[in-house]
Amino acid sequence: MKKILSAITLSALLLPAAAMASSVTLAPATVATVAGNTFSVTVGVNPTSGKAYTVRANLSFDPAVLTLTGFSFASKWMPLSQSGYDTEDNTNGVMAKTGGYPGGVTSATVLGTATFRAKKNGTATISATSESLILDANNQNAVAGSQGSVAVTISAASTAPAPTQTVTEPSTPSKTVTAGTVTESTATEAASTDSGVPAQAAAVALSPFENILTFGTGSPAIASLVTLVILVVLGGGIWFWRRKRSDY
Q: pLDDT by residue (tens digit) across 86-131?
């Protein structure tokens, strides 16, 4: 009987303390993201012991997995930028943001938004610590019990395979032989004979008479012109000789 009375008495003593407990809340409760992406966490206050006039939210996180990229206060909050009340420490994984609310708040209210970047795949927890403050009109801290937390799951960024490139080798133009004419040939090939002897060697192989007619060039056009001149001269000489004989 004494044990029952002791238990009832203890519960009666703890009930007011539990009723007066206020907390810093975090939302959402879970976050699933990809390495390299950023995400937001809403930081709020839930006063249960009357009005809360000043709130300091102390958060802890794993700096090996997460990076705090910033914090913005919700409307009507007046930031308190003093040492120990305004901290962003990505080396130790700590954030502290403090603000005052004119007239105080009596219900769950958003303090602001913290943004984080996922550094690599893995898991991490963002937690509001017991060092947080929720001060009433008498500057009494009403923080008690468990505070808010966020479970973060980070997956590795997917790497798409690099697109393959198909290189088409240019086709080699073929040579077409039509009626003794070779296309796509070089000047040397055009000047070569069927036996593979260059044109200059063929010109050297001409007879002495042909060399005289072409002046050593081997050109049929020059040979024809020289032959025509010779015929004209010979014809003129014969005509002149016959006319002389007829005069005698």
A: 999 999 999 999 999 999 999 999 999 999 999 999 999 999 999 9
pLDDT digit string (tens) for 149-202? 999 999 998 776 666 666 566 665 555 444 444 444 444 444 444 444 444 444
**Structure tokens that stand for 168 in this block:** 């088409």
Q: How far apart are CA 6 and CA 1, in angstroms?
A: 9
Token pair in block for residue 56: 């300091």
Going from N- to C-terminal start, the domains of the chain cover: 21-155, 199-248
CA 138 to chain centroid: 55
CA distance linking residue 28 with residue 30, whole number of Å: 6
Contacts (Cβ under 8 Å, ≥6 apart) of 115: 38, 39, 40, 41, 68, 69, 70, 71
The amino acid sitting at 219 is S
| Coil, helix or strand at residue 163 | coil
Task: Determine contact, residues 117/37, Cβ cutoff 8 Å.
Answer: yes
Which fold, 21-155? Immunoglobulin-like (2.60.40)
What share of the chain in percent tops pLDDT 70? Answer: 67
Counts for the chain of helices (H) and strands (E), in that order: 5, 14
CA distance 47 to 27: 16
How many CB atoms are located within 10 Å of the residue 34 CB?
Answer: 13
